[in-house]
Amino acid sequence: MCLFHNNSLRGKTIKKEYSKTGIALIGSVIVDELVPLLELGQLTFVDAAEFVSQDELKGEHLTFSVGGMALNVAVDLAKIGNSYPISVCGKVGEDHRADLIRTVLRSHHIDYHGLVVDPKHGTSRTEVLHIRAADGSIDRIFRHVLGAMGSFNENDIKLADLSGYKIAMFGYGLLLPQLDLIDKEYGTILGKILADVQNMGVMTALDFISPSHENMFKFMRYKKTLAFVDICCINEDQACALTGKNDPGRACMSLVDDFGVKISAVHCGAQGPNYAYTKKNGLVVQQNFIVPENEYKGNAGAGDAFSAGFFHGIHQQWPIKKATRFAAAAAAISLGDTACTGAMRDEKYILDYMKNREIRS
C-alpha cells in the first residue's frame, strides 16, 4: 500500500464535525530477540539444543516479541483495555517477523492497515541482552538492524487515516532515518508531518531513543520540531539534552514554557521521581512505586509502558496528576516480564495497584 501526504493541509486548521477518539501509533515496528539474563563472566551455550538434551547441556532459549514504540505502546494500550480504536502505522519486510507482528496485532484487535511492506528489506529487529552486574543491578545491551523501518518515510503515512483519532503518537525520533532529516522550517521532516496532523485537530505526541554523542547534532534539530508537539513524553536524559536544563523537573517545565509543547511528561527510570507539566496545572511530581525483587524480571519497555499509561489517561480526560500516577503504576507493572509488553494488565488492575502499592519516599 502506498500512503502519502496531503500537503494542502499545512498551515490550515480543519474543523471536524464528529468527536475524535482513539490513539494512532506511527513509527518503530520491531521484533525483539530476547537473550536470557546473563551474568558477568558467564559462559552460555547458544546452540546446545541442536545437539543434546537440556538435561545434558543447557543452551540459550531465545524469546521473540514485538518491540519498538508503535508496537509496544499499542499492545500496552490494548491490554490496559479500551473502548477506543488503536492503530499502528509502520513498515515491515516480507518475512516471518512481519507475520509475527501481524499475528500479535490481530490478537489484540489493533488496526494494522497502516503497515507498509518493503520488498527489499527485512523487518527491523533488535537483539536485547540483559546483563546482571556484580552489584545485582541489571542493564541492557541492544544490537539493532534498521531493516524496513530504515526506509520508512513521509510517503508511507496517509494523513486521512489519522484524521479521526484523538491522539497520534510518533517515534522513535533518532530511529527513523528518513524522518530525522533536517527541515529548515520544521526542524525535521517529522516536524512537517506533526504540523499537518495538528492542523487536522489531532493531538500530536513524540518520543525518542536516547541520543549518543555521535547523533546529538541530529537530536538538536528536534528543538524546532517541538513547537508542533502537543504531548511530549520522554526520559530525563532526552529532556535535559533538548532543553539544556540539568534538573529533569525544570526540563519538564521548559519543554512547555520555552519550546511550545502543550503537555510534557518526563519519566526518570528506576530512581525517579517522574514529572508532568502544563501551564494550567503546574508541575506534578510522581515518585516510583516500590517493586519487590520477585516481581522484577527486566526493564525493557518500561518507558513505553509509562507512555501508554500516560496517553490512556490523557485520552480519557483524567487530571494530569491521575494520568501521571497511572503511568508510573503501568511502568512498575511492566517490569514483571522480560518482554516489553508481557506483564501489562488492565485498567482496573492498574488503578487498584495505584491504591494498594507503596511508593518511594
Short description:
With 361 residues, the chain is α/β, with parallel strands linked by helices. The protein has ten helices and 15 strands. The protein has a nine-stranded mixed beta sheet, sandwiched between helices. Strands 3-2-6-7 form a four-stranded mixed beta sheet. A two-stranded antiparallel sheet has the order 9-10.
Please, could you describe this protein's structure?
By secondary structure, the chain is of the alpha/beta class. It has ten helices and 15 strands. The chain has helices spanning 69-80, 96-107, 189-199, 216-220, 222-225, 236-243, 248-257, 302-315, 320-334, 347-356; strands at 23-27, 30-39, 63-67, 86-92, 111-117, 125-132, 138-145, 167-173, 182-183, 187-188, 203-208, 231-235, 263-267, 274-278, 282-286. The strands form three sheets. Strands 5-4-1-8-11-12-13-14-15 form a nine-stranded mixed beta sheet, with helices on both faces. Strand 13 (263-267) and strand 14 form a beta hairpin. Helix 6 (236-243) packs across helix 7 (248-257), helix 8 runs antiparallel to helix 9 (320-334) and helix 9 (320-334) packs across helix 10. It is globular. The protein starts with 22 loop residues before the first strand and ends in a 5-residue tail after the last helix. Residues 1-18 have low confidence and may be disordered.
Helix content: 25-40%
How many helices in DSSP terms?
10
Portion in beta strands: 15-25%
Task: Return residue spans where pLDDT drops below 50 for at least 5 consecutive residues.
Answer: 1-18
Q: Any idea what the shape is?
A: globular
Radius of gyration: 20 Å
Largest sheet: 9 strands, mixed
Span of the ends, CA to CA: 51 Å
